User: Fold this.
Amino acid sequence: MSILVNKNTRVVVQGITGKEGSFHATQCKAYGTQVVAGVTPGKAGQEVEGIPVFNTVRDAVKKSQCDTSLIFVPPPFCADAILEAADAGVKLIICITEGIPVNDMVKVKRALYGRDVRLVGPNCPGVITVDEAKIGIMPGFIHKKGVVGVVSRSGTLTYEAVHQLTTMGLGETTCVGIGGDPVNGTGFVDVLALFEKDPETQAIVMIGEIGGDAEEKAAEFIKKQVKKPVVSFIAGITAPPGRRMGHAGAIISGGKGTATEKMKSLEAAGVRVVKNPAEIGDAVKVALGR
Amino acid sequence: MNVHEFQAKQLFGQFGVPVPRGKEITSPEAGAAWAAELNTPVFVVKAQIHAGGRGKAGGVKITKDKAAVPGLVKELIGKTLITHQTGPKGREVRRLLVEEGAAIAKELYVSILVDRDSGWPVFIASTEGGMEIEVVAANTPEKIIREAIDPAVGFQSYNGRNIAFALGLPAMEAAIVPPFIQMLGNLYRLFMDKNAAMVEINPLVITGDKKLIALDGKVSFDDNALFRHADVQQMRDLHEEDPLEIEAGENNLNYIKLDGNIGCMVNGAGLAMATMDVIKLAGSEPANFLDVGGGATKETVAAGFRILLKDPNVKGIFINIFGGIVRCERIAQGVIDAAKEVKINVPLVVRLQGTNADEGRKLLAESGLKLEVANDLWEAAQKIVKLTGKAA
Assistant:
């Protein structure tokens, strides 16, 4: 068991003929992911590393029975690409693209509301279920099959945590990057609920950062509905107010969204909050009583 | 991206949001000419800087005397304003807005931004205009009105009525309600059409003769959408930005200057923030946030070094790279090449982890460069703090 993706997941890569798209489609396939189709308008009939390319997601779904889309389409056209995937009947859309206008995501989120489709991202490293499917840009080899579920708003900081879990022999089940944008698809609460139900996941690492109140909402949910141990790190305790720290969503505005506030809410919900990102692995070990 | 008040008001004008007659002025002569043309009972001369609190800092002057306008312009141009938002160094005034004054009967507050939780645009309104909205929210949260707008259909009249009745406007001044609702619709259009991140009118005034006027305005834009708006890009004022941040932007680096002594260079925004945090935890303060992105090359690392070293506060540099797709030995080579190009006269600690980290560390160790290599984040942070001394 795992969450969101597994060895049966059939992936279409939107933007597969671009530099990023072709590189990562190849990497995902090499990891063992079933990358069954690619889409670039006007390039049907081509192949990328043996993966057939279609003009539209609709064609890709019809011909390849893909159920999940991985998107590398550039920001100006990305909202369109997400909506195309949803309309074609794809059930899970993982959007890597960074830099999509916020108002585009406002419209996308509204359009997806109430439909049987899940969006992960944008501006995220993707999702990996260890030894089954890597659908994203994370380096596969740092992962090791194990017992910890990881959910994060950041990319390289997630790799840092995963590296610690792997080195300590704890390993991971599934790692989900929910992305660093202010308006995104799947949130902490959705992923926490999935991990809580997943029999293989014994502990959860949640990596947050300044901006918004997703961590506070997660804390409320954990208090009520999560029995598994949760370890958390929140980046940005030294971040100045009013400045966007790289991620579009990482900003303290009007005194709201500080790391300190988030840590306090999570601690109050029984989460083990580490102040030092180098101690994430140790904290999980303690939480699991190992 | 932020713009000046006079630019925000130009946009308001374009979208049918009423504003005082006003003009950007940069010289006493232009001030005199504009004052003559404006010909109004009350003149307001306002310093244009990207920071709030201008009034309290002496950046807003009011006069009834047309002849006094050029003198006020002369007084304000070149003056350094220190407000609670500028930091202790303050900001030099280079541009002014000279506009007609308004007879204020009532001050309101209206803004619009995206609620991150729902992903819907939301209006925030209050009867407590002219105050800082954060203060109102903290002290009298019941005076904050929120109205979410369904982005599928956009602003509707009922949204406007909800806000107007909640503010008590019909009882206050019934005639003002229809233009108020129309103005809210116009603000929503401005917000969506121009990809604004936030539009704020504070105060929105009802004048003595029962007219609505946006007396002060603030608009900030979504950087990710600037490619769609050439007109907005032209409003950028580089004088309002940190020179090092401008240089970093030109090199596609994400850099924010801070006040500490340890410069840091990291791949990835989250890890860059975490690196700043760990420097603080080890007993010092970060000099900056710098994300060199996923593909750190010799060129980006060299540009990063140059920017970090231009900050006179930097007493040491901490490079923290988690090699994912990018291999560590290539980054190590980039650091070695860049360090040869740029003279580094402060202690340097490089922490490499991830893909081919051992090879990368070996290259650095054998390079003959004066630097310390680490493989653990905490070990690296302690090293750089030890080499530079703890913050006072």
